[in-house]
Every structure is written in C-alpha cells, then in structure tokens.
Amino acid sequence: MGNCRLIGVGVGPGDPELVTVKGVNCLRAADVVVVPVMAASDGTDGGERGRAEATVLHYVSEDKVVRVVFALNERSDRARREAAWDAAGARVAELLRTHGTVAFATIGDPNVYSTFTYLAQTITDAVPGTVVETVPGITAMQDLAARSGAVLTEGTEPLTLVPVTAGAGALKDALNGPGTVVAYKFGRQAQEVAAALRETGRLDDAVWGSALGLPEESIRPAAELDGATLPYLSTLIAPARRDGGRGGKL
Q1: DSSP 3-state assignment of 135?
Q2: 8 Å CB contact between 144 and 124
Q3: What is the mean pLDDT of residues 165-194?
Q4: CA distance 213 to 199
Q5: Among 35, 74, 111, 145, which residue carries the largest CB count within 10 Å?
C-alpha cells in the first residue's frame, strides 16, 4: 500500500477566496476529499454543513466529497471521543485503500490546532506506508488582522498563540508577557477573557472576530465583550504595547 497519499489541506477560516491556488489544485486532483463533520449527540452525522465542507464545495463537486464524523468538541467523555476517532480513522483508512489519494480539508492550517494531526497519526498506524503531506492554509489570526487592521508583529516582537480551552490562566500569563497575544476558541469563556484583558491593561487595543469572511461575520473591539456567549470559534488579537512611532521595535 506504499502508493497511498493522505494530504491535509488548509482551507482557511471560512472565506472561499482564502484557499490557496495549491490548495484548490490539491483538492481537485485528489480521488476523494474528506470533510470533518461534528457528531450529533448520538454519535451519528448530525447533517449540519461545517465550514470546511462549505468551502470545499466552492471548488469540488459534491459527489467527490465524503463526510466523516469526528467528535470535534467532545472533551468530557473520553471513551466516546476515542470510539469516534477509531471509527473516523477506519473510514479514512478504507477510503485510502480504495482510492489511493485522499485529501482531508481542515479549516485554517493543518499544522495549527487541527484535527488532521490526530488523523495522520491514526492512519500511519492503520495503513503502513501511507505518505502524509500538508498544504498550508490561511489562519484565523491572519484573516482577523487583515480585516481589523491589527498588526500582528513588528520588529523583534514575539507572537503568542493561546487556545483558551487551556484555561484563562494561560491567557493571562501570555498577556503579562511581551508582544502580541492571539487567543483561539474562547467563545465559551468570553467573560474570563475580558477580565484577563482588563487586569493586564490590554483591553483597549484588543479586537475579536468570529465567522470571518462569512455573511454572519462579526468584528468588534474587545472592550465590547460583555460576557455574552460568543461563537466557539472566536479569535482575539491583543496587539503588543507599542510606543516609539514607526519602526519603534526594529
């Protein structure tokens, strides 16, 4: 089975125009394109069209797309999550054996907090000799920076990316440090995020966004975070404290 290829293709944060030319070519050249689908409460396909699938369908016909159920947000029930992963891995392994080249579409970038990482590990065990490749994608922090005008880094500034699913403590530590801080997946902890920004004196310049590039897009100053629940896939940029004018950090 040495000629099997599994390619993780980053399809960006939602705007179909933000898929790279290489990504589009790869999706079209693959024998089949797998899109991850969030499991319903009973573990089956809930039928909802995810962001990756919606993006892929701008470039690939529906008959080439295969929906595979993943327990994408399952953290509480480890056994259920593992069972869902085993089933998803087995389904993709079967597609590889049948088709040879399978592209897996993931929002953002396949090497940044992506489902693809776990899938690739599962597949290399299940189908030895599979060649695993990735095609980079535009990340939500890049898109939010472009749409909001927030500059991510200048000169020697560091950039810290924190998934708030790790807890607000990790975010506060980062905000107390230098450089720009980006927070992912903070929708369910918007209140804690606002508090951390306030406590570290970084609320005024920060911006958050969700559904970037989609009709329901929302981009607002972080000072407007009022504790209401936001979409799970919300992104925050707290730019570095900058003084010294142009080139001040060079």
Answers
A1: strand
A2: no
A3: 89
A4: 31
A5: 35
Q: Which residue has the tokens 């189908």?
A: 127
pLDDT by residue (tens digit) across 96-119?
999 999 999 999 999 999 989 989
Helices (H), the chain: 21-29, 51-56, 78-99, 115-126, 140-148, 168-176, 190-199
The one-character DSSP state at 38 is: E
190-199 vs 168-176: helix crossing angle, rounded to 10: 20
8 A C-beta contact, residue 1 and residue 128? yes
Q: How far is CA 40 from CA 14, 51, 56, 188, 203, in A?
A: 22, 16, 22, 19, 37
Mean pLDDT of the chain: 88
32: left (phi over 0), alpha (psi -120 to 50) or beta: beta
pLDDT of residue 78: 74
Instruction: List, for residues 146-171, the tens digit of each pLDDT value.
Output: 999 999 999 999 999 999 888 888 99
The rounded percent of the chain whose pLDDT value lies above 70 is 89
* Three-class SS of 63-97: HHEEEEEECCCCCCCHHHHHHHHHHHHHHHHHHHH
DSSP class per residue in 215-230: TT-EEEEGGG--S---
pLDDT of residue 248: 45
Question: What is the rounded distance in angstroms from the CA atom of residue 87 to the CA atom of residue 151?
Answer: 42
Prediction pTM value:
0.89
Count other C-beta atoms under 10 Å from residue 193's C-beta: 28
